[in-house]
Amino acid sequence: MSESGAAIGPWVLSLIPVETLVPDSHALWRPLVRDAFAFVFSRLSKERLQAKIHEQMALPLDTPPEMRLIWLISKMPGLQKLGQVLARNPRLPEPLGEALCQLENGMSDMTGAEVRGILDEELGSLLETYGVEMEPTVHKEGSASAILRFVWRKPGREPQAGAFKVLKPYVPWSFAEDMSLLQAFGEFVTARESSYRFAVRDVRESITEVRLLLEHELDFAREQATLLEAARLYRSSIGIRVPRLIPELCTAKVTAMSAEQGVKVTAAFPGSQLRRNRIAAQIIEALLAVPLFSREPAAIFHADPHAGNLLYDEPNRELIVLDWALTGRLSLAARRGLVMLTVMMLLRNPSGVAEAVCALSRPRRKGARIPQRLIEHQVSRFFAALPPHHSPGALDAMLLLDELALKGVRFPSALFLFRKVLFTLDGVLHDVAGPGVRLDEVIAYQFLSRCIGSFGFFHEPLKVKDLWPMTRALLC
Q: At what angle do helices 171-191 and 203-214 cross, to 10 degrees?
């Protein structure tokens, strides 16, 4: 790090004071956040750093720190993705959470002409073979890609509407640098563990795991395979659909799929609370119940279900789930643990909750034991702090896992993503139907419906032996 680089950290912190982003109630996080700013931006490549300085100097003097942060991580796809992962966490200060939610719509930095140039280079003569006619402007942008709509024709077939998802040219190099910086930061904080007041021993490994998951965003071949898998996953689900892949026009940098018509899910049927409640139930079924109750050994789930990725086809009453780049997989054992954790949380049964958490956690190292006493202690404290008339559920369970992670309890990286899914969906559901729809109730209805429809033979991911501890907890 050069002498000029060392001066960048304090300059960034003067523009975006940590105290304004992290409230007093979370003051123990301030040293880590302060170190993160100083570390990442003091080591950013010269070209990107110069652009950041120019952008910050051009902003009005009264620009709020939250908005300065958004500009600071523009064209930093790795940090944008992490910001999206964090955006819906209810523990974030409200202004910061609202600002990070703007990342759901990405940054607008590509023109239609630029996208068409990439498509010409990638597809060449295929554009003529399939009579592709592209729209002049970009339809939508994300942190790593841009969407351009088109019409194409199979020989002897009627024209069909499609959408190209095109990788932005600057993203691979920028993303690689972002991830390298985060990996180095993980090593940095691990070496400075005594400087923080909570567990950071596994930060380096956690960042590595998240990095591997986020790299899927750039793997178009993987996303194309995932689209085919998602189509199979929802083929028997009424009222849910995913875009259909067009393999004839796909490459390593271009995914072609059917163009889906609908309104943003939060804008559907604005005058009907009954229909909006039904939409909320469809969202929970699609993003939670279907993967949780899948018979597959490792069920896939959509890990980026913000409102921009959810459309609603009002005439056909169908939910459309877009953008399958960021996904995770939950094993049958992990799904069983999540269901048992939620049930025991609903029943306010601390011992059952602790047992489910132990089943979800993993040892710190090979041969080590799960910290059962620590888990039981934290679970007891968590229940003691709950208001007497509060009915805990799935979101409370996720908050408990967050607290345990800060104490050094380790969980699979896929569970980290699934917690983010729940927090994100909670915000979407509130925007769609208000506070009247609960995740837990819809998930329970979906489970019972599957059991009744199979005459009691279907109960994945639970086993028959799980019924006894559930019944015992209910009777206590």
A: 170
Listed in sequence order, the DSSP H helices in 192-249 are 203-214, 220-233
- Max Cα-Cα span within the chain: 71
Element (H, E) at 55: helix 46-58
Contacts for 122 with CB less than 8 Å, ≥ 6 apart: 166, 251, 253, 254
Kindly give, in sequence order, each residue whose CB lies less than 8 Å from that of residue 161, ignoring residues fewer than 6 positions away.
Answer: 149, 150, 151, 258, 259
Looking at residues 65-83, what average pLDDT do you find?
78
Could you tell me the two tokens for 105?
């719509």
CA-CA-CA-CA torsion sign (341, 344, 345, 350): negative
- Beta strands, E only, 304-446: 310-313, 318-321, 327-331
Question: Which pLDDT tens digit goes with each residue over 162-206?
Answer: 999 999 988 888 888 888 888 888 788 777 766 776 666 555 655
**How many angstroms separate the CA atoms of 123 and 8, rounded?**
43
Name the nearest CA neighbour of 351 among 434, 470, 235: 470
Q: Are 163 and 256 in contact (CB under 8 A)?
A: yes
Tokens describing residue 292: 């949780």
